[in-house]
Amino acid sequence: MSIDVKVPDFPESVTDGTLISWRKHAGDPVKRSEILADIETDKVVFEIPAPADGVLQEILEKEGATVISRQTIGRLTAAVAEIHPVMPNTPQSAPAAHADTSAEIASNRISTAALAQSVLTPSAQKLIDEHGLSRQQISGTGRGGRVLKEDVLHFLEQNPAGPGPAALPAAPEPTPVLGAGPEARETPAEFPAPVVANERAEKRVPMTRLRARVAERLVAAQHTAAILTTFNEVNMQPVMDLRQRYRERFETEHGVRLGYMSFFVKAAVEALRQFPEVNASIDGSDIVYHGYFDIGIAVSSDRGLVVPIVRDADRLTMAGIESAIAEYGQKAQKGALSMEEITGGTFTITNGGVFGSLLSTPILNPPQSAILGMHKIEDRPVAEKGQVVIRPMMYLALSYDHRLIDGREAVRFLVTIKDMLEDPARILLEV
């Protein structure tokens, strides 16, 4: 029996997607719910599971094709008596040798299916190639047995002496490639030839849907909003002292690391209460004031920048905020964020300091009217009570839409965040 493999229903805001990869080939055995293909939209990547056990009979749409909701992209032959077919005029009781052969075939098929599940992420493949590993050596912890970058790093930590098990035969010494560096080796025929020294190489690749969507939204923000940025700096010593004092107990009690972001989210929520226009948005000729606080946290992933939403952040404890951010960070690296988790938001926080940025001007995330930029904490001389002292300082940047937010409110909003961070007790007391 033939079963269609179809694209799932996209949300209303998504019209189509790009078939970026097939994890199976025509003729491969598959298990029910095993991931067959990945479809990228301008927001998330959808995984297409197998609707039943069987064999992938036919692939109708190739990688790179544009597909729409409910479109048939392949066909599956259901596994009806696949392993032990009953042949005409064949007795019910076969000889023992035939039973052993059938069991061996079934075992081989299962092994092939299990091996096919070990899909590699690009970053994991790069690490495996760099260290001369074999994909069979590494157990995948990702969805459907997918091998992640973290899995390879964990394997390398556990096996610092060498990549391969002793039982594997030694591979012949590869032939160096002329004109390449000392790490260069012969590449299989399916990979492009290495670049010859002094050659002016270029590589052209299509922009991913996520990158194209980010570019489109950022350009639109520049054209449709009157963006200004105001700056301030905050002494992070009080927050750092509080973290140092309670970090171990916090992690023991709540099972999550106490970071800086929860302090900023809490401070932002209280500042948004005092300045509701910063939490508002423009819809045509109307101003929409939001009575809730959904804070977007910008996260960098292999696919690009995504902004998962911490919903109702005002109702969450600091441990709840840290748990939500940690979970979103893991999902972002695995490409497992859902459409609902990255849609909406009334205010955004982005932290360029994790990459070493000292100062920047963040761009609005439409239709939001403001975004807070965190930066690197750096020891600097500051004046306190007439004395020059060294303090861990961070520059803050608030970009805002001047059509809705006046400069006075923007400056006072940022000063409110600064005051709360320099006196963290105000965050807990909500004063």
3D architecture notes:
This protein is an alpha+beta fold. Helix content is 29%, strand content 23%. It is built from nine helices and 19 strands. It has helices spanning 96-117, 122-130, 149-158, 209-224, 237-254, 261-274, 318-334, 407-422, 425-429, and strands spanning 2-6, 17-22, 29-30, 35-40, 45-49, 54-59, 66-67, 72-78, 227-235, 280-283, 286-289, 295-297, 299-301, 304-306, 309-310, 347-351, 370-374, 378-384, 387-401. Strands 9, 12, 15, 16, 17, 18 and 19 form a seven-stranded mixed sheet that branches. A four-stranded antiparallel sheet has the order 1-8-6-3. α6 (261-274) crosses α8. The longest helix is centred in the N-terminal third of the chain and has 22 residues, at 96-117. It is globular, with a radius of gyration of 27 Å.
Quick overview:
The chain has helices at residues 96-117, 122-130, 149-158, 209-224, 237-254, 261-274, 318-334, 407-422, 425-429, and strands at residues 2-6, 17-22, 29-30, 35-40, 45-49, 54-59, 66-67, 72-78, 227-235, 280-283, 286-289, 295-297, 299-301, 304-306, 309-310, 347-351, 370-374, 378-384, 387-401. With 431 residues, it is α+β, with helices and mostly antiparallel strands.
Output the helix-strand order.
EEEEEEEEHHHHEHHEEEEEEHEEEEHH
> Biggest β-sheet: count, sense, barrel?
7 strands, mixed
Beta-strand percentage range:
15-25%
Low-pLDDT residue intervals, each spanning 5 or more residues:
81-118, 162-191
**Given the C-alpha coordinates, what overall shape results?**
globular
Distance between the termini: 67 Å
Q: Measured on Cα atoms, how large is the radius of gyration?
A: 27 Å
SS-derived structural category: alpha+beta
Mean pLDDT: 80
Q: How many beta-strand runs?
A: 19
- Helix content estimate: 25-40%
Instruction: Enumerate how many helices there are, as a single number.
Output: 9
